[in-house]
Amino acid sequence: MTKKIKIGNLFIGGGEKIAVQSMATYKTCTEKAALQAEELESAGCDILRFSVLDNDDAAAFSAIKKRVKMPLVADIHFDYKLALKAIDGGADKIRINPGNIGAIAGVRAVAEAAKANGVPIRVGSNTGSIEKDFLLKYGRNEVSLGESALKQVAILEKYGVHDIVVSVKASSVPLTVKAYEYVAAKTDYPLHLGVTEAGTEYGGTIKNAAALGALLIRGVGDTIRVSLSADPVREVVAAKTLLSALEKSGTGANLVACPTCGRCEWDCMAFAAKTEKYLATVNKPIKVAVMGCVVNGPGEAQDADVGVAGAKGGCIIFSHGKVLKTVKREDLEREFFAEIDKCIL
Ligand code: SF4
User: Is residue 280 classed as helix, strand or coil in its secondary structure?
Assistant: First the structure.
């Protein structure tokens, strides 16, 4: 079990619900970034990170915090003074790399300010930021990635910081899994899981699902970011879908849908897509099935809280394998979504 730490109004680690993170894509001090924060919060984002490039960005946290409830993270490279300013402005967590923040006095100042304000710090490595010594000693692998991150942890601990989150990211799925397993065996700080530079929405989601799924199913990981070259709302949707597929607690609806075959006589695929959209905002762990035909549908989706299967001239709506009603295709959407609503109540 990892250590439980507090980030703003949220706890991660220690068996808490796995928090979904994303990162704003607009410059932090702009109205677009604040609007994006609101949009991401509505989509189910639990923690949002912003890059801090200058004083205006660092000062923007107090204004954004008035518009959203989720904890905000300041991502800082090179200038420790920006970290101090972001903490002053109300950032709930800081992401730094002590190796690139400059003189050790700067790292110490950030550590002391974070500690005084109850602000946790995320440190970590990725395949582009492995410490030279470790790279020479071990090569580019899980050991050098893990040891680079653990060295940063040791620096923070030296200055009395014990609310730490650790990440070890690679763009390779097997290396990401090995690196997180390596650090999980060596530290009990919560782990932030992610695949770096994962790619576009389709390929990147698969990479993230493969790496994060392999880890989460074994209980490794406390917070995740499904990083994608796409709208960050898609990251949140993918993360939530992944957690619900893994049947993690506190997640939303799980949609099962058949691939269809020659027995299907209606547009089951389009209806599955429509249902998926409808379920995106559902925060209850219900199971919903959209099946092509009555021959196999209700039987195969017996554990669904509510399901639909195509029948001659219409569809049947069922629950746990039992038929609730037969509906005409034109009434299906209204009738089916009303049954989903009943499950949510
Ligand atoms: S549920 Fe029916 S339509 Fe869907 S794959 Fe099975 S047999 Fe084919």
Answer: coil
